[in-house]
UniProtKB/TrEMBL annotation:
This is Cupin domain-containing protein. CDD domains: cupin_HNL-like (cd02233). It comes from the Bacteria.
Length: 145
């Protein structure tokens, strides 16, 4: 369900906004918020609730790993988009689960008219790294339906 009102979204965002995602601002168009759910020092799997304001999306990026790795997105509130390079964008709603293999260029974020949250699960692997690429252009984004 699309939710444009922040107060209404906060009621449905079960895992909470957390803090403004300032460390990665340069890799996002719009504002995002990060609420870590696990401590990487205590668990081999890092999970965080990532919240996107309407129209916010991250840049194209690639999760690299020599073995294992990748990312899983578990959509929890609002509506968003996920797109792999060379493929059509996929509409995301609460309950959608996206498995992103390592080495796949992709982006994800909110729809233009809805707040959006997903739990990001970093899949353990050997020599994991993240390569940030170019932003999703306004022209690409505005044509999503």
């Amino acid at each position: 369900m699309k939710i444009n009102d922040k107060a209404e979204f906060e009621k449905q965002n079960t895992f909470g906004f957390g803090q403004k995602n300032t460390e990665y601002t340069q890799y996002f168009i719009g504002n995002s918020f990060l609420n870590p759910l696990t401590n990487p020092k205590e668990s081999p799997m890092f999970l965080a609730n990532v919240t996107f304001e309407p129209g916010c999306r991250n840049n194209w990026h690639i999760h690299h790993a020599d073995k294992g790795g990748g990312q899983i997105l578990i959509c929890t509130a609002g509506e968003g988009w996920y797109q792999e390079e060379g493929k059509e964008a996929v509409s995301l709603i609460p309950g959608s689960v996206i498995t992103i293999p390592p080495e796949v260029k992709h982006w994800h974020g909110a729809k233009a008219d809805s707040w959006f949250s997903h739990i990001a699960v970093e899949v353990p692997g050997d020599n994991n790294s993240n390569q940030w690429c170019e932003p999703v252009s306004d022209d690409e984004y505005k044509h999503l339906k």
